[in-house]
Amino acid sequence: MSGESSYSEGGGWIQWFCQMEDHQFLCEVDSEFIRDNFNLYGLKSKFNFYNEALDLILSSETPDDEDLEDERFLEVYQEATDLYGLIHARFIITAKGLSLMKDKFLSGKFGACPRVLCERSNVLPVGMSEELRTSRVKVFCPRCEEVYIPKKKCPDVDGAYFGCSFPSIFIMNFIQEIQIAPNSQQYVPRIFGFRVYKKKGSRYQDTQQKPAEITHYSEEQLKKLRGKTEQQSKEDYVQK
Prior knowledge:
Blueprint: H1 12-18, H2 31-35, H3 50-58, H4 65-68, H5 71-91, H6 95-106, E1 124-126, E2 138-141, E3 146-148, H7 166-178, E4 190-191, E5 194-195, H8 203-207, H9 219-239
Antiparallel strand pairs: 1-2, 2-3, 4-5
Helix pairs in contact: 3-5
């Protein structure tokens, strides 16, 4: 790794890093965005080799086999990876970053929802925490509003590289363009054709099946209901 960094708008370490097999969720952050200290506020204290890692990210050179065998280089490389990831989380909620992620979303680069009734709707990457090494990246389906483990595993991608807020900001900006189909289809459990009564605590029954809730009554409750119905019928008959 050279002491002085040479900069390149297209290519270099950023392009090399984002084109790695497991990094298809990542987009290339503009070098101008990275050079702006305002966008890096609060990151320096998180890294031991902050300056070296930043130089590596902005370098026009890519690592060779000799670099990847050097222990010191690997320490800086690991920090550069995490530093780029945290910068990436900030970049993708800017106008330019959102536009790049929209292209990936529309082309299905992030994968499809595994829920059958979502009919392979495109998903968005999301982190469960803003902190590094808390959890790996997950995917969020805008249609059923659930979070899933990506079908194609991304072992080297930390959820903090995307943050918790990205899907919400993305949908707020592109709600008219991405055309999210309403989640009108709902699986209803049945036994021999009969719908199963509402199970206490069922997420789908409680939060989504609002129009026609299925209520289960005990035999004693049914007797009371029948008694009330019969009494009401007698009163109605007398009034007539």
